[in-house]
């Protein structure tokens, strides 16, 4: 059977796909393999998980969801999805600080690629990690905690250090949110004022004159004018013209955090069900207005191959390979039509436009320019995996090999 990623634009080259059912089986598999990569839920749009050797997925490795109520932490198996985890946490009075736009993705895969939600005070999903366990090149199990020297390099690591088997996440008390959609945001809007006026705020635009705003708030949105916009008169999908049935509830109806933070419901196919390509660039937040203005200058090149763009904010962290390392960030995301030949030159043009703002790519999406790899991460990867059994083409390019 041909194995592809969720979008179907990547066909994995693995000779064999393994599904170990015990930790011991996984350890022997890793120790005996000359080349191996771990696969999460397959929601990356590039070949970050691909490789010419063995491929392992942990969908049969039993790891219960273990909540430590006293420490406000939860330990989960790497292949657990946020859709599986979130209702269990809520039933026990806990929540995650943030979630991505869709809950169908695996915890370890999201963490390893630096996936994020939105909110000026909210860090990435990776920043919630307080501990992890992984099987390294010789089959050993290594456990790392937040205070360990290697920890900041091991969280966002692209699978280069080993096969992550479990992740421990920080929790906060459960909470409710309301979701609103406002339309017609004017071109001259105040970026900081808009993006700060909610727990999580996203802008959606096709690079015409206006944008729509999705606001997730703990409190009601005040009636009347809101930054020059009008209230949507019914539920919306981020992509204009698509039916909103797969989206989480809007119109200010209060609901649990896990059913408002994502844009898409866990019981429905996400977004356009894979008929898309995606790119995202992460820039210092202080350059948001200039970057958006610069991209409007090439709107006529972007729109023919675009479904929709989303603009979000992410708070800084100190993880070595994180796209948000050391800087509060704005993420400018592109959901493209599934037309690689048409999209590729436009990605290059977007990269040129954003170059002056020091962009970093989202590791799970499509880009052509690799950022410089921190030397301390290169050193860590070669120490954990001296023979390179976890290094595929993607990682080798990053490490300069």
Q: What this model shows, in words?
A:
The protein has helices at residues 23-32, 82-91, 107-112, 151-154, 191-195, 288-296, 299-302, 340-354, 375-384, 393-398, and strands spanning 16-18, 36-39, 54-57, 66-68, 73-77, 94-95, 129-135, 141-145, 163-170, 172-173, 176-185, 200-205, 211-217, 230-231, 255-256, 277-284, 306-314, 329-336, 360-361. It is of the alpha+beta class and 401 residues long. The mean pLDDT is 96. Strands 11, 12, 13, 14, 15, 16, 17, 18 and 19 form a nine-stranded antiparallel sheet that branches. The chain has a five-stranded antiparallel sheet with strand order 4-5-9-7-8. It contains ten helices and 19 strands. Strand 7 and strand 8 form a beta hairpin. The chain has a domain at 66-173: Uridine Diphospho-n-acetylenolpyruvylglucosamine Reductase, domain 3.
